[in-house]
Amino acid sequence: MNLHTIEVPREEAVRRFREYRDTVRRGRDEVDRALAAGYEALSKGWTLLRLQDTLAAGGIDELRRPRLAICRATAAWCRWFGDSGTSVYAADLERIPARWPTRMVSDRYVVTQALENAAGAQTGRWRALVPLVPPAARPADGLERYHVLWEAEWVERQPVAPGDPALVRHLGGDLWILLATWDLTELERAVLEGARR
Description:
five-stranded antiparallel β-sheet, 4 helices, globular
């Protein structure tokens, strides 16, 4: 999986975080707050990724479905719904709610821009198994505030364990903190597929 990350030398990130933090203390500018949060994450040594660029780089498969998926880390399944301008990755939902989601991230879905050339795909028909997060990568505060980004295996019925997952947390807008990457072992894949039948 090709992750589109933002890299800034740590010393520069620390300096810029302090500048924006001081600016935020004097005012309530949303852009300054987002920049302060981004530089703070970089100053702590975390990697930031741009979700839309990462999804776009993943591309679409021969059935015009996205090759990558993102979903709440506690979900069992993810479905992809799309229209001409928006993609929605929904956790454990059979169909999209009557009102099309407008918030980018919630506990039930992630909304992104539509992927180029994905128009005409049958959205909502297939589902992808959400990878399990191994104990070494699980945050101490639980998985409820986190998402998994992975190479999706879209299926209609029989579950297929996914590959190349990453644990991420939404920072704001299109920015996500990359917390961990791993590969599922053959045993983890077999147990996950069996548990979701």
